[in-house]
Design brief:
Blueprint: E1 3-4, E2 15-19, H1 24-35, E3 39-46, H2 53-64, E4 70-74, H3 98-102, H4 113-128, E5 132-134, H5 150-163, H6 165-168, E6 174-176, H7 184-193, H8 218-230
Parallel strand pairs: 1-6, 2-3, 2-5, 3-4, 5-6
Length: 243
């Protein structure tokens, strides 16, 4: 299995499992893969996250992209704790500056989350006979998460060639991370160009009633900065949506 960030060649007729959180990045990666001609299945993880509204967003995105094979898998990472996203006693940081967001590993880091998620996606991909796994990992504004870096992706890709029947039989599954080197505004421009409705997505770590974005967590701030830099309005934060 190789990690790839470039556009795949001759995707027509190929299949992929996309890790679909319901967030902006994963939705964009899914729309990109659909444009490239992949037959898509989607995997979303219900891991005990405080922002479970993202699962409804994932379902909405899957419907919009006509992904009929969508598995929402419960895995209770809240049983381990260790993160503001899985432990109600740990507050989600709010109002941090861009400098603060860019340094250190934040309280919203979920221990080994992407390793768990990718292992599950790899199992689904092998079971489906998929050619690739598509994910929206981004290393530009990754907020200090160690499992969003290109070197992490390369290491997991190597592991997967050793850990699967498909890999040892010479049928490795590609790991495609088309957004890994893109700034948020470029991701948003890509998604808008693909016709993606970002009003279906949610990025907030600490949403209010009905999933209303808090506007102050790291993820909300990064999303807002991305839309501003892209010169576009974010339909998710349109006040009329929450009247």
């Amino acid at each position: 299995m190789k990690a790839a960030v470039a556009k795949p060649s001759a995707a027509s007729g190929r299949s992929a499992v996309v890790l679909l959180s319901g967030g902006l990045d994963s939705a964009t990666a899914a729309a990109w893969a659909a444009r490239e001609g992949f037959r898509l299945a989607a995997l979303s993880i219900d891991y005990g996250q405080r922002h479970r509204v993202e699962l409804e967003a994932a379902r909405a995105v899957a419907r919009a992209l006509a992904i009929a094979d969508h598995v929402v898998l419960p895995i209770d990472l809240a049983a381990f704790g260790g993160s503001a996203l899985t432990d109600a006693a740990v507050p989600v940081p709010h109002g941090r500056s861009a400098v603060e967001i860019a340094h250190g590993i934040p309280a919203t880091y979920v221990p080994a989350r992407n390793t768990v998620f990718l292992a599950l996606a790899l199992a689904m991909a092998e079971a489906r006979g998929a050619d690739a796994i598509v994910l929206g990992i981004n290393a530009v504004d990754y907020s200090g998460y160690p499992d969003c870096r290109p070197e992490y992706l390369a290491a997991f890709a190597h592991l997967a060639t050793l850990a699967t029947k498909a890999g040892v039989e010479g049928r490795p599954c590609e790991l495609l991370a088309p957004l890994v080197h893109l700034p948020k505004e470029a991701i948003i421009r890509l998604g808008l160009g693909l016709g993606l409705d970002y009003g279906l997505t949610t990025s907030c770590y600490d949403p209010g009633p009905g999933g209303r974005p808090c506007g102050g967590c790291d993820s909300c701030l990064l999303r807002a900065a991305g839309f501003a830099a892209a010169g576009a309005a974010d339909p998710r934060v349109d006040p009329a949506r929450w009247v």
